Amino acid sequence: MDLKIAGKKALICGGSAGLGFACAEALAREGVDIVIAARTPETLAQAATKLEAVATVTVAYIAVDVTTDEGRARIFSQHPSFDIVITNAGGPPPGDFRDWDRDAWLRALDANMLSPIAIIKQVVDGMMQRGFGRIINITSSAVKSPVDGLGLSTGARSGLTGFVAGLARTTVAKGVTINNILPGTFDTARLAGNFAAAAKRGGLDAAQVRADRIAKHPAKRLGQPEEFGAACAFLCSAHAGYINGQNLLMDGGSFSGAW
Question: What digits encode the pLDDT tens for the residues 6-20?
């Protein structure tokens, strides 16, 4: 299927690895010019080289922390407008809510709610003026099915979810959709790190922790980043203009509810 977005320009935050890179790769294959942003220059350069190898598109990268005002300002000083934006930032560490002070909460809100909103604020009016825009926020399956210990992440991302639900209804008539993708367990380096940390805490083998997690999963496997990227690309396509203000849960069926 031709997604009819060739020649568009996309910003992918956290685009140097994991699910962010998968989104960038899927969009590049559709002929979208790419700007990836992340914190580590070396990783960004490697990712840009990979993207240039899969498609004949323009690929740029910028090493910034998108959760800061300065980082976002650097992006938009170099690239003032985008047709597609993917917001994506790692979640805060797990823990006991009794241990989280006000500063911990503010850091979580800055990274996982206020920063995506600031990025949306920067791009949405231009998108509406041009008559096309796609904004995707990568959040978490925990927004749909909260997990004890992930309260900082879930609280902040739930706030973003509520904000998007209202805003999206005001933009779609001008051709701009805003949606969220809620990933479950995908086979990324970050998830491998989580397995290793859990193994260390429990005095277990990381491979066994991974196997135990997969055994409990309805799909009996982890999600592949390429699957996530393909779903993201479709939501960014010209065919998805009537999908708006939604939360796409990609967890292989782990959530047991009907809706």
Answer: 999 999 999 999 999
